[in-house]
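Pasting as-is:
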Amino acid sequence: MLPEAPDDLGTRRFPELAREEMTPEQARMANAVLGGPRGRLIGPFNAWLRSPELGNRLQKVGEYIRFTSSLPTRLNELAILIVARSWTSQFEWWAHAKFALDAGLDRGVVADIAAGRRPATMREDEAVVYDFATELRRTKRVSDATYAAMQSRFGEQAIIDVIVAMGYYDIVSMTLNVAEVPVPPGEPEPLKPLDAPFP
C-alpha cells in the first residue's frame, strides 16, 4: 500500500464512485483490487471502473507486473520509472520512486532518471535494463547487441516481462494524465517538464 495516499480517490474528470453507485461489474472490479495486494482503488483504478471488464483485466496484468515479474523488483521499478519520466506522470512517479528506493535502487539513479539523463552510478544489471528500456522507448525497437545483453543476463521471460511492464505503465500513465490524478495534498509534483527525456 502507498503511504499517505489521499482519501479521496476521484478526480474532477472521474469522481470517486460510492459503493451504492457501482454496477455489479464495477463492484466486481473494485472487490478484486481491494482484495488483492494493492488494497486501494488508487491511481488509475477509479478511472478504470468506467470500463470495468477492461479495468479488471488490466489490473490483473498490473498485479503480475508489480508482484510476480521475473525481473527483480529493483529492476522492474527502474523500468517503471523510465515510463513515468517519459510521460511526466506525476502520480506514477510519486508512487514508484518510493517503491524503487525501497527495493534498493540508489537515490542518485532515481534522481538522474527524474532529470532525464543516464544515471552515472548504475549497477551492471541496472545498466542492461536501462539500455533496453530507453532504446525501446527512443527508437521503437532494440538493436541485436541490446537484445543479446538482456537475453544473456536475464533470459527471454524477462524480456517479455519488461516489454509488457513498459506497455502497461504507458496505459497507467495515460490514464493518470487524462484523469488528472494528483499527488497527495501538500506533496510537490516530483517531476519537472522535459523537452526530450533519454536523448
